[in-house]
Amino acid sequence: MKLSILTATYNRANFLPKLYESIKENLKYNITPEWIIVDDGSIDDTKNIVQSFKDENKVIIKYLYQKNSGKMAAINEAVKMATGDLMVDCDSDDYLVNNSFEIIEKNAEKILNNEKFYGLVFLKREENGKISGKEFKQKEYITTMFDLYFKEDIGGEKILVYNSKIRKMYSHQLEHNEKFITEARMYHKMDEKYKLIAINEVIEQGSYIEDGYTKNINKTFKSNPYGYYMYFKELLEKNMKGVKFSKRLYVIKHYILFSYLTGNKFNVNVIKDVLNKFLYIILYLPGMMKSKRF
C-alpha cells in the first residue's frame, strides 16, 4: 500500500527535518510513503534541506518549486503529483506520531474497498500533549466534516486520510486570485456525495506557529474575503436542520462580514432555512455596523 504525504511549505526549512524523521520512524510498517513537497516560493534553505533528504535515499521524495501562490494552490499541485492509494496532508510545522502508518494501515481497507467513503478522519495532538479541539463522540463511526463541526460541535484541527481516487476529483477553489481558502469549503463539497469514518486515534502532532494562517485569522480574513464570502454563502444555501444555534449565528455573522468586505449583496430568499432567514434579517444592521469597525 502506498501513501502520499502532501506538504506545502514556505520558508520552513528549520521545521522540515522533524517531519522527515517522523516519516522515517514509520518505515517499519507495511506502507510505502512518498513525500510530495511543494515549495511555495521559499527564500530560505528549503531546497538544499530537501536535497539532503533525497540524498539519503530512504524515502521517495518529490519536490516542486513554484512562485508564491499560497498554501491551497500548492496543495492542488501536490495532489496532481500524488501516486499513492491514500493521501494525507501534513503541514511543514507538523509531524507524524511514531505509529501513524500502523493506524492508517489497519483502517485503510474500510475506504479503499467501499466507494461511499472519501476518507478517514483522525485526531491531531498539540505539542503540549492535548488533543486539538474535541475527541470524537465514539471510537469509530460514520459522519461528514459538515456534521462533525456544525451538528456534533467537534472543533479543533482534524487529520484526513483520503482515498486518492476520490480526492483527485476535487481541488481547493480560490476566488479572485486569493491565496487562501478554508479546507472546509472542499470538505463540504465532498460531503455531498461521500462519507467519512471518524476514528478516535492520533496520527499527527504539532502546534500553530506565530506566522501561520490560523494564528493570524483576522489578517487571513481580510486578505481572502471573496473565498470566505463564497464559503459562508454556500453554507447558508444548505439544509441546516440539526445545526446548533451557535453555529447558525457564526455562519450568518460571518456571511454579513464578508458581504461587506466584498461589496456583495445576497438575496435572502436563497436561504433555505426559515430560522436562518429570520436570524439574517435581525442581525443584518448590527452585523454591518460591526463589519465596518472590523
List keywords for this structure.
20% strand; Spore Coat Polysaccharide Biosynthesis Protein SpsA, Chain A; alpha/beta; globular; 294 residues; 9-stranded mixed beta sheet
Brief write-up:
The chain is of the alpha/beta class and 294 residues long. The protein contains 12 helices and 9 strands.
What does this structure look like?
The chain folds into two domains: 2-206, Spore Coat Polysaccharide Biosynthesis Protein SpsA, Chain A; 224-293, no CATH class. Helices cover 40% and strands 20% of the residues. It is built from twelve helices and nine strands. The chain has helices at 16-25, 46-56, 71-81, 100-107, 109-112, 145-150, 164-167, 184-191, 217-223, 225-236, 245-262, 274-293; strands at 2-9, 32-39, 60-65, 86-89, 94-96, 117-125, 140-143, 158-163, 195-206. The longest helix is centred in the last third of the chain and has 20 residues, at 274-293. It is globular.
